Amino acid sequence: QVQLVESGGGLVQAGGSLRLSCAASGRTFSGYTMGWFRQAPGKEREFVTAIRWSSTTTYYADSVKGRFTISRDNAKNTVYLRMNSLKPEDTAVYYCAARNARPWYGSSSYREINEYDYWGQGTQVTVSS
After folding, report:
1. Which pLDDT belongs to residue 28?
2. How far apart are alpha carbons 60 and 6 in whole angstroms?
3. Per-residue confidence (pLDDT) for residue 61, from 0 to 100
4. Which end of the chain, C or N, has fewer beta carbons within 10 A?
């Protein structure tokens, strides 16, 4: 019964920045790993970044390392995605995802969409050239 709602998407010029938010409701946020995925038209949904509950462990796709930053405010049940130096290839619908607290198996499982239990409806990010 977890509901995730993304916000903050929009149109931005290349080189600009956006900050996405994902607000969770419905049950406790405690222990959840949160992730961001994106899907461009005609492409499969791909992993962008993820963050563990403690915020001490984060993961990034190579394509966004150094440009995107994931963070969370557990008291507000909210996760953020700060996107800097945006490129046209970043254009996609960005989805927030949550994984309930349980062990991770495998070093790259956080990148797999089927590891996550809840998904938001997405927010459109369009980067113009």
Report:
1. 67
2. 19
3. 97
4. N
